[in-house]
Specification:
Radius of gyration: 26 Å
Strand content: under 5%
Distance between the termini: 41 Å
Structural class: mainly alpha
Order of helices and strands: HHHHHHHHHHHHHHHHHHHHH
Length: 523
């Protein structure tokens, strides 16, 4: 009975994590077992892609002799896994707010949590597969029989992955029982996910700095060095003791999670206890009330952290790597490159304001309130226009701050900084038009966690491919523009480039204005 319950709950949570993909697969005629297999295959494909990319890079490194390289890469992906685990566990267990719905049902608590943990594990597994590749490749590089190296590496990865997963789960659930979390749940969630993102940024930064050091090898990290010993010599005393410690730790954490923490979470002991008192403000117009309401919608910590991790975070990490690692400087760019910086700003904004941006979910954030607002005696298109202007302003302010920071560290001329800021504003407007319209086309008012919104229309894999493709095209356009400035008269090239930008901008604005003029706003 429990096994049947578990399988059904796993299927429900798989559908629940990515409803848009579920809907798309059903439109393609897939139902039942074929539907579940299709959704699982997507995670497996993403994992295979991660493993292939990083595995190919690791084949050129002697992981047996270079313990520092081994431990530093494992440490990096451990931090990435912790960051992904914090966000995913928070989404599935706390932001979904569906645990209370299981209480009146004749379901085993063990089955409910096992199903959720299974889906969480499947979601974060692709980011951990490079560690598995390291264990296997290092085991094969020892010269032993390939089957032994593969088996030892795989078993060690399973133990490592379970340990990491349980450790992160216990840390999150234990913190959720504290008074400060229950009284300030949104703030604590934002800080918790924010700290893991900062830790991941620091890890990437340290790795980049270490790789540029004049020393011949990286320093080994204690703890991960014992994992290296298991892979290289699994029968040594150190390896056997390390495996025993991991097994005992996994057992203790499993018992602690099942007997103490999960019952508290299921009973709602982590529920927010502070009553939020809203101030009644008189004398405010409807527009100001709507602005205040929509700014409140953006206060979801999981929404903000996930959006930042998909949009701003990669740009910041890449910029830090350029400035710190490579000593990047654009001080030699004269005023004739102002147009290049303008176009570069447009491209950066298009890369940043993608399907994971706030503009891509702004309408869906209303949930069921959207129907109520539509029933009010107001211009509904005017309300949607207000939401669009608001989110464009918010995103523009963030992008301008990033552009100014980039200009400062890159030692750009003030004119180039100004045109860069103008470029990111224009690119933000154009990209927001697309993503805002996309949100209306894929409108979802029944979502329960932010992951469902960002996964619409293709999920993280599509976002990754779009970002990569836009970066390649953007680099080609900016590079071609700069090269033509050096080959032809700058005045002619700059005027021609601005004419192209004006024509393209006019077309995009006209296209989306025409779309919304004819759009059917029936919910």
């Amino acid at each position: 009975m429990i096994n049947r319950q578990l399988m059904q709950l796993i299927k429900i949570n798989i559908l629940y994590v990515n409803p848009q993909q579920t809907r798309k697969q059903r439109e393609n005629g897939k139902t039942g077992a074929a539907l579940y297999r299709s959704l699982i295959y997507q995670y497996l494909l993403l994992g295979a892609l991660f493993a292939f990319i990083y595995g190919a890079l690791l084949l050129t490194t002697n992981l047996v002799k270079d313990i520092g390289e081994f431990t530093n890469i494992v440490g990096l992906f451990t931090i990435i896994g912790l960051s992904q685990s914090v966000t995913t566990i928070d989404n599935v267990f706390f932001e979904s707010k569906d645990l209370k719905d299981y209480l009146p049902l004749p379901l085993s608590q063990w089955a409910v949590f096992a199903a959720k943990f299974s889906v969480v594990g499947l979601t974060i597994l692709p980011t951990a597969l490079p560690v598995w590749m390291m264990f296997v490749i290092a085991g094969i590089q020892t010269g032993r029989f390939i089957g032994i190296g593969f088996t030892v590496g795989t078993l060690l990865f399973i133990l490592y992955y379970i340990f990491l997963f349980l450790f992160c789960s216990i840390a999150i659930f234990s913190f959720a029982q504290t008074g400060i979390y229950r009284h300030h749940q949104k703030l604590m969630t934002f800080l918790m996910t924010g700290i893991t993102m900062v830790a991941m940024a620091v890890a990437v930064f340290v790795m980049n700095m270490a790789n540029n050091d004049n020393s011949t090898s990286l320093k080994a990290i204690p703890g991960f060095a014992q994992l290296h010993q298991i892979v290289v010599d699994p029968t040594s005393l150190v390896s056997l003791v390390t495996v025993a410690v991991l097994l005992i730790s996994v057992f203790v954490m499993g018992v602690l999670l099942q007997k103490w923490l999960l019952p508290k979470v299921m009973s709602g002991a982590n529920a927010q206890t502070r009553t939020v008192k809203r101030k009644h403000r008189q004398g405010q117009g409807m527009a100001r009330q709507f602005i205040r309401y929509n700014l409140g919608l953006l206060g979801n910590p999981t929404l903000l952290t996930q959006s930042i991790s998909i949009t701003i975070f990669p740009v910041v990490i890449y910029s830090i790597a350029m400035f710190v690692q490579n000593g990047f400087s654009l001080a030699n760019l004269t005023a004739k490159y102002a147009g290049v910086m303008f176009v570069a700003g447009i491209m950066v904004a298009i890369i940043t304001v993608n399907q994971g941006s706030l503009s891509s979910v702004m309408i869906s954030l209303d949930r069921q309130n959207l129907a109520f607002i539509k029933s009010l005696p107001i211009d509904f298109k005017g309300y949607l226009w207000l939401k669009f202007k608001l989110i464009v302003i918010v995103q523009s302010l963030v992008l301008i701050c990033l552009a100014i920071g980039f200009g400062f560290f890159a030692k750009l001329l003030w004119l180039n900084v100004l045109t860069l800021c103008l470029g990111v504003v224009l690119g933000n407007i154009l990209s927001s038009m697309y993503n805002y319209t996309r949100d209306w086309r894929l409108l979802d008012l029944t979502w329960t966690n932010a992951t469902q919104l960002f996964n619409r229309g293709g999920g993280n894999m599509l976002i990754g491919f779009v970002i990569l493709g836009t970066m390649i095209v953007g680099a080609m356009v900016v590079g071609l523009y700069a090269a033509m400035l050096n080959a032809f008269p700058p005045v002619i090239i700059n005027v021609s480039a601005m004419m192209i930008v004006i024509i393209a901008t006019t077309y995009v604005v006209w296209h989306y204005m025409d779309y919304w003029k004819k759009a059917d706003l029936t919910l």
